[in-house]
């Protein structure tokens, strides 16, 4: 009788012990699997970052670039020879040395408008040096100012703006400073041309 109860108690203890071992094994396996999943995830993430980095490096080394269209360098609309560039700087400084940057830009615009107009010569220097019936189109070319000016930083900036295509002249082909100008020339401006606007000391015509 006692042997029977003892055997049953022993079997019950063994069953309890096996259950406890199984529970512990499940917990251990869960922890191990969690760590394994975490390590696998981190490994895959690292591989993706490495792949992205290598793709960027390959892109750069192959000459490809990420383009930001807002900072692309503008193209020069009016590429000039060294001689024409120097002539444009000089005439702008001579004609508008006392004007602000927009006043200087307007003079450059008029010169370039003439270059693009079939009624005038095809180069900046030829436009500036042109004479009509023996009279210079730009007075500074004959009174010494064109040859002797010192180019200001503002003039460089104004000419640069014009060469890159900025035009605020409304297509003007002529300008004059009415104060102190020859009355005969002023009459020609007033009778033969269409006045567009005034800016600073100059009036602009078409």
Structure description:
The chain is mainly alpha-helical and 206 residues long. The model is unreliable at 20-24, 26-34 and 56-72 (pLDDT under 50). The protein is elongated, with a radius of gyration of 42 Å. The protein is built from eight helices and five strands, in the order ααααββαααβαββ. Helix 2 packs across helix 3 and helix 3 (101-115) crosses helix 7 (153-163). The strands form two sheets. Strands 3-5-4 form a three-stranded antiparallel beta sheet, with helices on both faces. A two-stranded antiparallel ribbon has the order 1-2. Helix content is 61%, strand content 8%.
Defining key terms:
two-stranded antiparallel sheet, mainly alpha, elongated, 61% helix, single chain, three-stranded antiparallel sheet, 206 residues, 8% strand, 5 strands
